[in-house]
Amino acid sequence: MDQFTINILFVGASFALYIGIAIWARAGSTKDFYVAGGGVHPITNGMATAADWMSAASFISMAGLLAAGGYANSTYLMGWTGGYVLLAMLLAPYLRKFGKFTVPAFIGDRFYSSTARLIAVVCLITASVTYVIGQMTGAGVAFSRFLEVSNTAGIWIAALIVFLYAVFGGMKGITYTQVAQYIVLIIAYTIPAVFIAMQLTGNPIPMFGMFGTHVESGIPLLDKLDQVVTALGFNAYTGDVDNKLNMVLFTLSLMVGTAGLPHVIIRFFTVPKVADARWSAGWALVFIALLYVTAPAVGSMARLNLMTTIYPDMSEQVEDYDAAASSPILYADRPNWIRAWEHTGLITFEDKNGDDRIQLYNDTNEAFTGTATERGWEGNELSVNNDILVLANPEIANLPPWVIGLIAAGGVAAALSTAAGLLLAISSAISHDLIKNTINPRISEKGEMLAARISMGGAILLATYLGLNPPGFAAQTVALAFGIAGASLFPVLMMGIFSKRINNHGAVAGMLTGLLTTLLYIFTYLGWFFIPGTNMLANTPDNWVMGISPQSFGALGAIMNFAVAFVVSNVTAAPPQAIQDLVESVRYPKGAGSATHMSH
């Protein structure tokens, strides 16, 4: 049986499972659609939350970024993990005690303002749509390779599948689908990692293997990797970063963005009690950790495998290796996995010096390019998209065809599970907070569910269109969404729970400040609404203010949000006593009622 047929069988079987679950658990009421009826077990919810959380960015792109950037890109790992702890400790139980379906509902009621609710809806949609772009990008990468179609066709196929099971199932369908997707993606991620760790280090536990000895050369794996990448003009894999400020801000931005992500927050409304919200968060952290402790090993081993595929003699122990004097493989002898990925356009080769060999090196390193030019190398000839490394890993390591089929299903599951959660957050914000609570309070339950499904369909189309021209790799696009959520929603949620003094004027001013400053900074470098060619400055470190990248600005947006909200609240009237009493009761998360509709 050929690889394509095996891929189709694995991906097709997983799709049949997801759509079957969505039909079995389809939403019959708005409570089912928004919070799965409010009776999900904490372990089940923890697993679903982990799948919701571990998107294409975590599964496909994070290890690719670690492979490309080494220690410098460990900020993704630190920021996302730390942010989840923030969410579990500081927000989830209190929001569950408050008992509203959605984030804008909490903001609207806590700050006794329909304007605050409306701005929260705008913030939520902006962050969620940006996030969905990253999922569509990742899904497109997975589909294009494993269904052997173009990247564009892959994105449209992903959009159709998400539409089918998210629109019909609502939160109830999505919850049980995400449990299945978590099981698929964690098996798909860890099995290839175990195989590759065994091949390279003899240790079946990837995270231990990464710090173990490279079998072929007899030296520590990370030392070997440093030796190989520096020989080709790249920065040392374990090297430190120059701009510590940007690194700290980026980690903070991912942390506050995680804690402000509406699609993860609404998962905590699906459990019966406040204690269950805490247990859900704990279980989710356990399930997330299984992937996150494996990702650095996957990234480092993928990078070493890629380099030694192109330069086979590098895999042995070589002192003072002179890459420019080496003979990389002939293009005609390239392995099948490179041929397969070339069809997608995500690996490209350009024979710049006409020698029919693949020169892969850092042609931006002036110290290295001089030597390379003397050897007749005209520039780096192989371009490899970061997002493919995890998906290509089993092929690079010559693993059995069924492992490749399994990781195909896992990559697709990761992208689709998060896309579904995000689309639910968008649709509930539009149908529940915008239409039912602002435009048409008399709308029937049937009309509200129709509006939710239509808005979900519209969001899928918009995200798909933007996913065809994404502003970066999947994880980079997702990092922008975290910045937007962290700058706009996280501060107002924190102040709403922990401060009685913050009033409606402060909340509105803070959210607008955080959202607008962050968007302005991002659009300056990445184009207005991410449209290519509309950026005002080139997205290079030379142009960044104080070396702060667009992905890192969310932390500063959040600080400005807190500051403006505090100042405005203290020069205007205090919130009504009833609201202050409400904040006091929410602060002690015991005895919460079930999630409810709006009180007004």
UniProtKB/TrEMBL annotation:
The chain crosses the membrane at residues 6-25, 53-71, 77-95, 116-133, 153-170, 182-201, 247-269, 281-302, 402-430, 450-468, 474-495, 507-531, 551-571. The keyword Chloroplast does not apply. It comes from the Bacteria. It is found in: Membrane. One of its GO terms (cellular component) is plasma membrane. Keywords: Cell membrane, Ion transport, Membrane, Sodium, Sodium transport, Symport, Transmembrane, Transmembrane helix, Transport. One of its GO terms (biological process) is sodium ion transport. Its main location: membrane. It is a multi-pass membrane protein. The keyword Transmembrane applies. PROSITE patterns: NA_SOLUT_SYMP_2, NA_SOLUT_SYMP_3. Belongs to the sodium:solute symporter (SSF) (TC 2.A.21) family. This is Cation/acetate symporter. It comes from Vreelandella subglaciescola.
